[in-house]
Design goal:
Distance between the termini of chain B: 23 Å
Strand order of the largest sheet of chain A: 5-6-7-3-8-9
Oligomer: heterodimer
Mean pLDDT of chain B: 89
Largest interface: A-B, 30 and 26 residues
Order of helices and strands of chain A: EEEHEEHHHEHEHEEHEHEEHEH
Number of helices of chain B: 11
Distance between the termini of chain A: 40 Å
Helix content of chain B: over 70%
Strand content of chain A: 25-35%
Radius of gyration of chain B: 20 Å
Number of helices of chain A: 10
Radius of gyration of chain A: 24 Å
Shape of chain B: globular
Number of strands of chain B: 0
């Protein structure tokens, strides 16, 4: 089933084009990461599909129009920051969300356990740390067991411990089979949590698809030899080496993940090329991302 | 509707500023009776000041007291019910969570209708209580012979709070909205009427400013008699008739409500 369809959405803030004809489809059960640098239009996209920003052009449809405008009762979401009344405690704030979602009265024990806030449930929201606030917001998105949850930069501003906690909570949510839409500028986060990715830059969709197909499995090879010229010639003749660039002390190659490094080493020696530096690493997502978004800096 | 009322109650019944403003309204409104007691003697052609506490003048007197207390305490209170939600982004989050914009707007309107109803009931109880305690052998029919004071009071309360909501939704920041609300009603409109407008056009139109028409729904008792002592520069009555005030207030209320609604529905949140 199609959960969300976005058709040709554009949004301007004065003369600035925040979104430029964006189209995107999200299927049931996908964990979609919307990836892009700051200012690429991620939050604007989420703001529009959640009804708080008005697009200048285009439209979107939730759940194939099955809920006749009441779709938001089936979506849990946080946008940018956790938004609660500072003078109310966790229970009171969650209860407000419950009332809006038209759900019967309940205690929030299970939810508060999941986000580790049960001990502090009676403290006013304003006394919470940023991580606690974020966790309460995640708990709020799950009230009423929504089909879709949406997070916007869920680990922004958190300390390493907070990031780890929030990521593990997000993984748990994704594993429950819910459709998750998550905006992030952190590639690592998207790769670890998401099944699908949509890459935005300057309000345009650059690429979309399963994480594996967009963020390739190529590896990076650092290699140097006593005779660098011979090495370059040798690498050129190897079809597994897709490209290379020269750095001061070695060549940095992009190679297929099928490349057998040990065989490469032996083969080089047979050609009388003595390799004195050889490091392989999985290609960094940042490199992948910069290549896709065409940003060379 | 009950859902929206419960929701607003959950949001604000534990907010210190809002609770204090409400308590101050309940305390200060009846406290105005003491001011009546302390007032200097009235001009000799008028009855003694005890008339303020007898039917039907008690309706006018407490109505005028309500004019100030509703304007100040309840007006500022409803501004906070909007700006607290803007400041903490809970307005935005409510829409994200599934409240429609219509429902959010309606919840604020329900607030001011309920507060106006409460203020009007309180006004009735006070007026009847004071009137019966101070009058002799008053009948129920003479007690209610008050020239539609009750619906006038309700409309006045609604109009002040509607204007307050209008400013809150347009300006969104509590400081700016409260400052503009208080200064507009107490200072800016006075200057517009008596300085700016007066210079251009010395006519009865000067009375048709939005908060003046609201105020004229419940003017100070006997102010009409001031017409006898007005200075020669003003060639028109300084008060609107009840009918004029009601019609003009209804028109302005409709205007402010429409602008608030249209702006709220169209704007990014």
């Amino acid at each position: 089933m199609e959960v969300l369809r976005i058709n040709e959405i554009s949004k301007n803030y004065g003369s600035i084009k925040a979104l430029d004809g964006l189209s995107l489809t999200v299927e049931n059960g996908q964990v979609l990461g919307i990836l892009g640098p700051n200012g690429s239009g991620k939050t604007t996209t989420l703001g529009i599909i959640l009804g708080i920003l008005r697009p200048n052009h285009g439209n979107f449809t939730w759940f194939e129009n099955r809920y006749h405008g009441k779709h938001k009762l089936h979506i849990g979401s946080i946008l940018e920051t956790p938004n609660f009344l500072p003078y109310l405690n966790a229970d009171d704030n969650l209860d407000i969300v419950r009332q809006i979602k038209k759900i019967d009265k309940q205690n929030f024990d299970e939810l508060l356990d999941m986000v580790k806030l049960r001990q502090r449930r009676k403290s006013p929201f304003k006394t919470y740390s940023l991580g606690m606030k974020q966790r309460l917001a995640i708990a709020a998105t799950l009230i009423g067991d929504p089909q879709v949850v949406i997070f916007d930069e869920p680990t922004n501003g958190l300390d390493p411990e907070g990031i780890a906690e929030v990521r593990s909570t997000l993984k748990d949510i994704a594993n429950q089979g819910k459709t998750v839409i998550m905006a992030s500028h952190i590639l690592d986060e998207v790769e670890k949590i998401c099944s699908h990715v949509a890459i935005l830059k300057k309000g345009k969709l650059l690429a979309t698809g399963p994480v594996g197909s967009i963020l390739s499995n190529d590896m990076t090879l650092e290699i140097s030899a006593v005779n660098m010229d011979a090495l370059i010639g040798f690498l050129r003749s190897n079809p597994m080496i897709k490209s290379f660039t020269k750095t001061e002390s070695f060549l940095e190659c992009i190679a297929s993940d099928e490349l057998d490094i040990a065989a490469l080493n032996v083969n080089a020696l047979e050609h009388d090329i003595r390799i004195n530096h050889l490091v392989s690493r999985k290609r960094r997502l940042e490199e992948e991302f910069l290549e896709i978004t065409g940003n060379e800096n | 509707m009950l859902r929206l009322i419960k929701l607003e109650w959950s949001k604000f019944s534990k907010n210190t500023i809002i609770v204090l403003l409400f308590i101050f309204f309940i305390l200060f409104f009846p406290a105005s009776l003491y001011i009546g007691k302390l007032m200097p003697d009235l001009p000799s052609f008028l009855p003694g000041r005890e008339i303020f506490f007898n039917f039907p003048t008690v309706w006018e007197y407490l109505g005028y007291a309500g004019n100030w207390t509703v304007f100040f305490f309840l007006g500022v209170l409803v501004i906070y019910t909007v700006t607290i939600e803007v400041n903490n982004k809970t307005m935005r989050q409510s829409i994200i969570n599934g409240l429609s914009r219509n429902e959010f707007f309606a919840s604020k309107m329900i607030n001011i209708v309920l507060l106006s109803t409460f203020a009007t009931l309180f006004y009735c109880i006070l007026s009847l209580g004071v009137g019966f305690i101070n009058g002799e052998n008053e009948s129920l029919s003479s007690a209610f012979d008050n020239d539609y004071a009750i619906p006038r009071f309700f409309l006045m309360s609604f109009s002040y709070m509607n204007f307050a909501i209008f400013l809150a939704l347009i300006f969104r920041k509590s400081g700016i909205a409260v400052f503009l609300y208080l200064t507009y009603v107490m200072i800016i409109e006075m200057i517009l009427r008596w300085v700016v407008h007066m210079k251009i056009d010395n006519s009865e139109l000067i009375n048709y400013y939005p908060m003046n028409v609201t105020e004229d729904l419940m003017p100070f008792p006997f102010l009409r008699y001031a017409d006898f002592i007005q200075n020669n520069e003003i060639e028109f009555p300084i008060l609107l008739t009840t009918q004029e005030a009601v019609l003009a207030t209804l028109a302005y209320s409709f205007l402010f409500l429409s602008i608030s609604y249209i702006t709220f529905m169209r704007r990014d949140i």
